[in-house]
Each structure stands twice: as C-alpha cells, then as structure tokens.
Amino acid sequence: MSADSPREVGERIAARRRARRLTQPDLAATAAVSLSMLRKIERGDRSPSDSTLEALARALDVDATQLRTGYTGTERRVHGALPELSAVISGYDIPQGPPTRHPDELAKVIRTAVDWRLGAQYGRIAAIIPSVLHDAIRHVHCASAADHPAAARMLASAARTADAIAFKYGSNDLSARLIDLMRWAADRSADPLVQATTAYVRTEMFFNARAHAVGLAALEHAVEAAPAPTGRPEIAARGALHMRAAVIAGRADDADAADAHLKHARRLADTLPEGTYSGTAFGPDSVRAHEVSVAVSLGPAYVDRALKVVTEWKPPATMPAERRSGMYIELARAQDWAGRPRDAFESLRVARAAAPQHTREHPWAREVAAGLRRQARADAESLTHFAEWIGAV
What pTM did the predictor assign? Predict the structure, then answer.
C-alpha cells in the first residue's frame, strides 16, 4: 500500500509535467485523461486509479513508481515477464525465422530500453523486452554476413537489458542464462568493446555465488584483453572494468587490489567527461560513486573512507538513476555502521526518490531499513512507512 497522500502524488505529477514543459491540456490529451480529472489529481483532490497513473506515467516518460512510491503494478509486470524471457531464450541458438521488426526499428527500441535500464524503469522494460529479445535473436540468425556483427551487438544489448530485471528481481538462474546469451552474442560480434561490456556484466554471477576471488581474476583477465585505451569508448570500457574489479576485490577482502583498480579507474576517468559508453556510465563521478561502494565492500573498518567521499562530492542529478540510487543505498549502510541513523534513513529516502524500484528490490536497503526500525532509530513513523514500503516488516 502506498504511504503517499493524494496531494504528494499530485505534486509529483505536476512537477514532472512542468519539467517537461507541458501544460495541463497537453498532458491530459497525451494521456487520454480528462482535463478536469487531471486538475483534481494535481490539486490532490483525487487519487488516480492504477490505469490513470500508468497513462500519466507513459505521457510523462517515467515509470509509475516515480509518481506513487507504493505502486505495485511494476512488480506484477516484471514477474509476469520473467517466464516469457525464459521461454524466449530457451532456443536462442536455433534459427526461428525473420524478426517482426525492421532492423532500424529494432535498434531504436533497444536504445530506448537501454535508457530505461539506466533510469531503473523496470516496469517499462518488462512491458517490451520479451518481444524485443525475441526479435533480436531472430535478427542475428537472419542477418547477412555484412550485417551480422551489428545484429550481434544489438542482441548483446537487449540481453543485458533483460538481465537488468532478472538480476534486480532475484531471478538468478535466468540472469545467468541471459548473461550466457550475451556472451554468445559478444563472440559473434567480434567486437572487443562488446566483449569487455559482457565481462563487466558477467560479474553479477560471481557476486551472486559469492565467488569474489574468482570474479576478480575474471575481471583482471578482461582488463588485459580489453582494447587499448586509444579513444573514449576504449578508455571507458577499460575504466569500467577497473571500477568493477575494485568492488569485487573489496568483497574478496583484498584492499590492496581494490585500491590499485580504483587508482587505474580514476586515472582513466580523468581523461574523459562523465557519460554513458557502450551502455555503461563512466567518468569522474562514476568513479567517486565506486569509491563509496569499495569502502562499504571492505567492511565497517573502512566506513570513514565512504563518509569522506560524500563530504567532498555529491552525485549530480545527471548521473543515471540506478547508479545514483545504488550509491545512496551503500552510503546508508556506511552511515548505519557509523552510528548515524538519521543520516542513514535520509540516504535511503534519497535513493528511493532517485529510483524507487531499484531501492525496493535492493537487499542492502531492506537490511538497513529493517535494522533501523528494530532499534527504533530515526523518525519512528516515517521509518515505519518506509519499512512497510520496502518489505522490511
């Protein structure tokens, strides 16, 4: 159940509308909602039904959870998509005829889905990704020799986007199968950048298995195999691998390796602007976020390192929502360890504002919220609402 009042939901809708420079008549027409109803919703006089909320969210180009934090339609959609994804990839190596989308249309919809992944809009991904992945697999089998590498790159990107919802929603077996599909596509692309990205994503399997030392070895091998950092995409690919290696080194309790990889990542990040390269955010801000992640991975003894980062730097609003949310969740863990419950709760709230579904499905966010509530730390009523929303009670 949502802890949001109708007024809070209405204010969010109005703020999103103004940010997109839409008038109320514009939004009402695009969402196929009556203007009088929209006005009542924005004033807080009326709470939108689920179907109306979804229509407004689509018109505003956001996930419905950005408008109502307790909205559960996204979870239903994601869980409904997971069996479809499993069926789609069951015979990915078997030709099954031509795709339903033209390759140009397929490339466009995959780019859109990647943007949704970076923005943690999992419900929107779930609504389209089974059919997109189905077409991407078929396209690889039907593409000409000249077009085959590009088709394989598209399939790798689609598989990564599908994996985002499988991994975030705890479907680890499906996630592993999607990563295998991504590796299959990467090999067929013969593109070292796609292969480096695949190695980056494959680390999820080592996190899930708690095989941190093996994961570190795999990433270090991937760094050696990555293309020379001669241009921005190549620099970002190598830098992202170093960032990921630093985190898993922290989980492996190898502080020296974590620091060495962070140093390499920082040096590479200083040579290019923050941005999204081959579907992965990289740059100076991403490295700072990973400095927090590494400190938390190393454990409570390193809490001061995590806290020091955020005294000198704050994630910019332009950072992808999923990464920004993840940084604040990890910061909340460090603040809880440091005996700063109010700060920890505030970081969880910031994480939720950035990416509600990412926060709700994150085990560390749930763990910190449950611990704060058990110890009656931070504002009791607000914390109880948050704990109920995240499923920590």
Answer: 0.86
